[in-house]
Amino acid sequence: MNFSGNRFVRVFHWIAPVLLTFLVVFGRGFFGAPMGWMALIGLFVGPFVILAMYVAPIVVVFDRDARAARSTRLFYDIASWVTWAALLVMMFTLEDGGDAPPFGSVLSTWGWMSSEASSNIFAVALIIAFLGWVGTIVTAIIGVVDSRQGKRISVTTLTDR
Question: How far is CA 59 from the centre of its chain?
Fold first, then answer.
């Protein structure tokens, strides 16, 4: 068993789906970027994203070893941090289309990068967030399976014979 030293992920993975989805959709407005149609689209897509992000924390509830340690497994923590960081990058690089010319992202509104660069970074962050989300689900399932199995024969024991 390899558990993380702190319990931050064990608590924050219940808050993150709502908070980070809200920040991706509406956070750009807090940092000075104009809000457009993406806010309306986010109202409809956001609940599905929130439900999808709650799959992994619900699976982790069934991990007996993690529950006993009152923590989460290290690889689950890594996948969670990757997902959360990618969602924050998405918040800063999300372009918003309006009826007129498209509204720039937070970083392009601040003048730090062009709209094209911001869109490219957003696309990469979206892929990383999706892969991180899949990683949280996979590591949560592996943790549950690992906690429910009895004694297992290790690979080194089989090769020593």
Answer: 15
Q: What is the DSSP string of 86-143?
A: HHHHHHHH--B--SSSPBP-HHHHTTSS-HHHHHHHHHHHHHHHHHHHHHHHHHHHHH
- pTM for the model stands at 0.78
Question: The tokens 């149609």 sit on which residue?
Answer: 37
Q: In one letter, which amino acid is 117?
A: A
Cβ–Cβ < 8 Å for 72, 79: no
Domain boundaries defined on the chain: 8-160
Tell me the pLDDT tens digit for each residue of 120-130. Answer: 888 999 999 99
Instruction: Give dist(CA 47, CA 101) in Å, integer.
Output: 28
